[in-house]
Amino acid sequence: MTDAVPNERALQLLKTLVQRYIREGHPVGSRTLARESALDVSPATIRNIMADLEECGLVSSPHTSAGRVPTAAGLRVFVDTLVAVKPLQRKIADEIESGFAEPVVSSQELVTTASKLLSQVTHLAGVVTVPRRKHGQLRQIEFLQLSNNRVLAIIVVNEREVQNRILKLDRNYSESELRQAANYLTEQFAGNDVSDVRTSLLEELKQARQSMNEMMLNAIAMAQRAFAQGDNEEDFVLAGKTNLMDFAELSDVDKLRQLFDVFNRKRDILHLLDQCSRADGVQIFIGKESGYEALDECSVVSAPYTVDDEVVGVLGVIGPTRMAYERVIPIVDVTARLLGQALKMP
Question: With contact defined as beta carbons under 8 Å apart, do 17 and 29 qualify?
């Protein structure tokens, strides 16, 4: 993209314009650029250079102002070649680290924590997909009695991942019945890959229905419901979407409605984040690069997070294209690393 920039002076002016625009959110005039760029050139020369940048498609002139703003292409040049990623401030690093230091019970809690932290420290929307490991080994299953024929299924996977699912059953089960069912299932299926457990349940029920006692049948019926619910879990956690209302370029009611519709549909966001899972390190989509019209005024800064060198999910922030990339990039990078470490801890 730097090939599109006429010369080094133009590159310097583009950098100054983008930094000012990100900071203020308003079109930037030639006099401001002359003052802030530290280039020893006249405002007339700057206007000529800006005209060249506009011809290259890197800046544009809003009808209501004599100043210019960067286009998505201009922001891409800035992000790829001009942005100076700042070391993470100690205060922010401590805030993120302390967030993961709190005792947690499940991976879902860690994902929720990560999304909230991303939102809090960037003042943007934080999004984290739930971890999906290719191989998850069932360790234990327990059932706890609730009211109104409901049971809490507690499924322990690998060393520490805990998944909680509420099951609505046909009748009330005693604590003794639930304990026997849980013991049977743990004995039968502990050590199996979770992806194989549902198939095993169906096969066992099909082949041995006649010889099974009521306890075994009840246990398998409950387990089938518990593992089937895995398909309906939240695929990602989003925090701070109302932060986006603070930015003038996103505050239009129609734009916000389209944006929130994308969040609620989930499919589009998941497809975009899935592309990020195949990337190495931080990846940035600016404006139309996402491929979704509702995100045309937004940028997505994302990074995959790993457990045991396996990518299990993606996290990131969604905000206006004029976000402070040099500040957001290290926040996303560090949060991804800390989330992976937290998920790995025994």
Answer: no
